[in-house]
Design brief:
This protein has two domains: 159 residues, no CATH class; 40 residues, no CATH class. It contains eight helices and 15 strands. The chain has a seven-stranded mixed sheet with strand order 6-5-10-9-8-3-11. It has a four-stranded antiparallel sheet with strand order 12-13-14-15, with no helix packed on it. Strands 1-2 form a two-stranded antiparallel ribbon. The longest helix has 26 residues. It is elongated and about 100 Å long.
Length: 274
Amino acid sequence: MGQRVQISIRVAALILAGIMPGLVAAQGAPATVSLADQLSAQYTMVKMGADSSGPAVVEAGTILVIQKGGILGVPYSDVSIVPTKYQDGKIQTPNSLMMKGIGHAFSHFGSSKQQTTHLFQVGEKVYPSRIEVNQAADKVTLGIVACDSCNNTNPPTFFKADLIFQFAKGYLATASPPQVMDIVAQVFTVDDSGGQQDQGGAAQGEQGGQGGPPAPPANQPPPQPQTIQLGQTIDEVVAAIGQPDKIVNLGAKQIYVYKDIKVTFMKGKVSDVQ
């Protein structure tokens, strides 16, 4: 009988050992955050809308500065878009044949609209609009929209583009978000210029020297020289030329020694200057 009890206990323990990990995973284990969510958290995505004049920015996102030119963009209202690829440190701009294909697609659907494109250049500023991760294909796609107010584009066009970051096979399976962002930063860096006001302040600083006060106007007259006269009091002399380097106190007679002159006082008033 005792042996049967021991066997039953062992069987129950084995059953619990198989069930408990599943219960812990279902109840207590934290949910895994996807790589796409972690990457998206690095930026504030732009929110676009439309008004009577066409596409418009509803909420601005993080401003990014393009570091590598050649990203192909189309107007925001266009349905079709040909992504640009970034691989092995190089931008691979879609060729003219692909763009002709887009034009044929428009004519096929009866559209008389001419396809307008724009190649984003180094220094242009854009907003991120979305991030998609295809781990099976080791691709990360970053959608962007031109920051026309940043680029002084008038009238605004809101060109948009997709840039595919192509990684080596199996890379995204083990890559951390910082590792992926290091690659993204080769093409896009966060704008930290602080805007036009800071640029104006920098220009003023350059005129006034490296962090020093601004230079006085060229036509400003030189300051009047300080004068010392017989009969002036000690306080009047100190106010005019400052404190002395040394003081010789001889009772009723005092001598204030400066770097270039000596002022003698008798009973508190200037009696001689050397």
